[in-house]
Amino acid sequence: MIKVLFVCHGNICRSPMAEFIFRDMIKKENISDKIEIASCAVSREELGNPVYYAAKEKLNEMGINCMGKTARIITKRDYNDYDYILAMEDKNINGITKITGEDKDKKVFKLLDFAGGGNISDPWYTRDFDRTAQDIIKGCEGFLNYLKENNKI
Question: Could you say which of 9, 20, 57, 100 has the lowest number of CB atoms within 10 Å?
Answer without folding.
Answer: 57
